[in-house]
Amino acid sequence: MLNPSPRPPTLRGAGDPVRDLRYQLWLGSGCFALMLCGLLIALYALSVDRGLHQAVDRTAGFGARALQVQLALVELRRRPEQALRDGARAEAEVLRAAAQAKDLAARLALGGQSEVGEEPQRALRAAVDDSVRLYLRLADNAQSASTSPAAAVIVRSSSVDAWRAQNAAYAAAADTALRDLLAELHQALVRDSARAEDVTSFARQVLVALALLTALLGLLFGVLALRAAAAHRQLYGQLDALAHTDGLTAVMNRRGLDEQMPVEVARAERLGYPFTVVMIDLDHFKRFNDRRGHGAGDKLLRGAAQAWRGQLRPTDVLARYGGEEFTLVLPACDAEQAVQLVDRLRPLTPENQTFSAGIALRLPGESAADLLLRADAALLAAKRGGRNRSVIAGNEPQMVLPLRAVQ
To answer: What is the residue-wise DSSP string for 276-330?
Structure first.
């Protein structure tokens, strides 16, 4: 009778795969978030650095325009005296130089609006406008001098000294305004450079910290992955053992036997040693269960399996074939040696329980399935012969049938 088997033992030491997977997801999300933060900080630092380069380019253009304004002012200072000497012939040149200086000053102030304040720009425009008005007034005097010889003497004698004094004052004001404008532009450039350097330094430190933290999280992720892999290997090993181990007797089950037998048969065929299989069946086990209960029957099966295992070699295999039937796989063992082993196992069976055994020695070329069938047939012959005995396949007692007369 087939006894009900208890639940398989609980898996131990395999860790918690669900918890480890949750940790890995959290660590993976953290690494992704840190890398995203690092990317945003790097993009911000690049933006600030690009802004600094643009400010440098604007400053270079501003400086070039400032130089043009200064050259235009120098030209204006030179041309009025020439106009006093040459009269109307230099008037057009003075007007042209004044218009150029005024236009350059306006362009210079317009280009510097984003870098400097309004005050230096207004001061520069006012100084240039004063110089231009002075030069235009002097040009009018030059035109009057060209039409009247008497007026020319007066202009040359009285206007030159006054013009020089006013021109020196206006020139000093224009130079001062231009210098202040360039100084403020330089300070703005220094501030932009300092800000860019601070942002770059901060971004560098943050990126290094994020890289270290990401590396640490990656290391933890790797440790968890290795731990999960080890836990999975252990779990698979335990599942494999449970799949091939009988939950009641802790010996190999029928599935394990079906997988192990072809391997052992092939090894015996290759190495050429004898190979024997023994089928064991506990006698009157159903009666024992009915009298003592299934708990006692389970205890008998466990005790018998553990007692028999102590007499086996490391290469021998004991498997629970089903119910109260067991199978012994004995490599490098012939039938007579198998009989001697079975005889040693009989007194070790608990509760003075007896068993019947069918022994089959593998024939050349015989498969594992055929070998088990012959051992099972020998077991059936032992049970029919009165139980508590061993029968070797091929040596079963022959039943003599009476002959019927032929009519």
So the answer is: EEEEEEETTHHHHHHHH-HHHHHHHHHHHHHHHHTTS-TT-EEEEEETTEEEEEE
Q: Give SS3 for 249.
A: coil
> Does residue 406 register a pLDDT over 70?
no
Per DSSP (E only), the strands in 317-363 are 317-322, 325-331, 355-361
Radius of gyration of the chain (CA): 56
User: What are the structural domains of the chain?
Assistant: 18-215 (1.10.287), 254-392 (3.30.70.270)
Give the pLDDT confidence of 253-283 residue by residue, as tens digits: 999 999 999 999 999 999 999 999 999 999 9
For residue range 187-219, list pLDDT tens digits in order.
777 777 777 787 777 777 877 877 787 777 777
Verdict on whether the full-model pTM lies above 0.85: no
Q: Rounded to an integer, what distance in angstroms lies between the CA atom of residue 268 and that of residue 279?
A: 19
* Both tokens assigned to 2: 């087939």
User: What are the backbone dihedrals phi and psi of residue 274, each rounded to the nearest 5 degrees, phi first?
Assistant: -70, 150
Angle, vertex CA 394, rays to CA 339 and CA 254, nearest 5: 65
Q: How many residues does the chain have?
A: 407
Helix 118-147 and helix 17-86: axis angle, to 10°? 20
Measured CA to CA in angstroms, residue 48 lies from 17, 51, 206, 211 at distances of 46, 5, 16, 21
d(CA 338, CA 36): 72
Q: Looking at 245-284, list the stretches that DSSP marks H as alpha helix, in order from N- to C-terminal side.
A: 254-271
Element (H, E) at 275: strand 275-282
Q: Given the structure tokens 């990401």, which residue do they identify?
A: 214
Token pair of 120 as six digits: 């230096």
| Residue 160 backbone phi and psi in degrees, to 5 | -65, -45
